[in-house]
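Risk mitigation, structural track. In case the binding assays with S-adenosyl-L-homocysteine fail to produce interpretable data, a predicted complex structure has been prepared as a fallback.
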Amino acid sequence: MVSLWRVSFLVALGVTVIACAPPPSVTPTPAVPVPTPTTDLFTARRQQMVADQIRARDVSDAEVLRAMETVPRHEFVLPEFLDQAYGDHPLPIGNSQTISQPYIVAAMTELAQIKRGDRVLEIGTGSGYQAAVLSVLTDQVYSVEIIPTLAESAAARLKRLGYSNVVVKNADGYNGWEEHAPYDAILVTAAPDHIPPPLIAQLKDGGRMIIPVGPAGFFQTLWRVNRRGDQIVSENIMGVAFVPLTRGK
Ligand code: SAH
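Fallback model:
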């Protein structure tokens, strides 16, 4: 997990190293990449993204805004879309899939009301970006991706960036991830045409599921599903457009 204080510490360390001569003979190996002038440029764009696209709309949870300011979205997009990494729209990630629009990632994260210690399941790892945002807010994130190459590349990317509290599995997420259930929160980032019963079964009492439901290729409805004992309460949040949840053979 990449925490802000650790990044700040590394920035401070970097400044000290540059300012002092000679440099210390032992340079600690950083757990997260030391910001370079390139990432500084992206930091400004990321702050702008949060201000203009997320805070200016209806997302106000300070922790969610902090997570969106922290996670380097440009690391999760294809090189040819680098200059659009902080744009107000989804982007292709290969295999006919997309990384969601930043606002949708933030809104879904806020709706899930994640607090530290929560066990979170994501269905549809894609690039790993949503999983990284979730991992800033808690310490156990499980993510399931049906396309093997995406699962593999997202797992490698998350590891390289230091998001060690995210575990990725290549499987059909319709079935959830039984082994680590029950979950405090489940986020589904591909749209099924009905709520998969296994996901309801794996939701903890008091747990929240954020899920787009609707026909493939059209707009769907984003639902927040709350489990209270055996009672399921669903709230219709907004219209959204997601890639379909496909099924394994
Ligand atoms: N959350 C991703 C974007 C999701 S795009 C991100 O932050 O980048 C939707 C993803 O869901 C795609 O990668 C797609 O392959 C995956 N998907 C579709 N059906 C699935 C299923 N049944 N189980 C798991 N993943 C699925």
